[in-house]
Design a protein that fits this description.
- By secondary structure, the protein is an alpha+beta fold.
- It is built from four helices and twelve strands, in the order E-E-E-E-H-E-E-H-E-E-E-H-E-E-H-E.
- The strands form two sheets. Strands 10-3-4-9-8-7-5-6-12 form a nine-stranded mixed beta sheet.
- Strand 3 and strand 4 form a beta hairpin.
- The two termini are 25 Å apart.
Length: 186
């Protein structure tokens, strides 16, 4: 069980201290999955601030998808989508819900660009870039990201605290989302 007031998205087990906030180093790796190229990366800083910075490499309008993959009681796994967002709308959303998006592990956030690119932050705070790969790679290199694959320690815990439920409900009321059922089984 995570300690009270645990605000990190993930906890790593320390034999002396118990559950401690899990952090990454600034790193990335280029991948090709079934012939689709992408960059997988993680940051020691704010994942949402990094996504906001990279958004400039992708064209408007954006389609935002919030995937609730491990819902609290009374909710089902769902994909909530809204289309036609300008960069300012996405930036404001990220800013308003930054603490929740970075401190709760029940969800993924996908930002689809009109140009076909996509930025993703998953439940492990891993980030993925599809499209605009040269610009994203240059940004990461210019900001001293190491070329190494992020890793997740074992054991680790996902913070899905009921204390975050009110913020999740607020986020779900932020837009007139179109909701679609999804399976959290992969």
């Amino acid at each position: 069980m995570l300690p009270e007031n645990f605000t990190s998205k993930l906890g790593a087990w320390d034999p002396d201290k118990g559950w401690v906030p899990m952090t990454y180093k600034d790193c990335f790796v280029k991948q090709s999955i079934s012939g689709v190229n992408r960059i997988l990366f993680a940051t020691s800083g704010s994942s949402m601030d990094l996504i906001a910075q990279l958004l400039g490499y992708y064209t408007e309008p954006y389609r935002l998808a919030y995937l609730l993959v491990t819902p609290p009681e009374g909710f089902q796994p769902m994909k909530y989508e809204v289309e036609g967002l300008a960069a300012q709308g996405v930036q404001e959303f990220i800013s308003e819900y930054r603490a929740f998006l970075e401190g709760d592990a029940r969800h993924h956030l996908w930002i689809h660009s009109a140009s076909g690119g996509t930025l993703i932050c998953d439940e492990h705070d891993w980030l993925y870039a599809y499209g605009s790969l040269d610009q994203v790679e240059k940004y990461l290199r210019d900001h001293d990201f190491e070329t190494v694959e992020p890793s997740i320690p074992f054991p680790h815990l996902h913070n899905e605290s009921s204390s975050n439920d009110a913020m999740m409900r607020k986020l779900l009321g932020h837009f007139e989302w179109k909701a679609h059922p999804v399976s959290n089984m992969g």
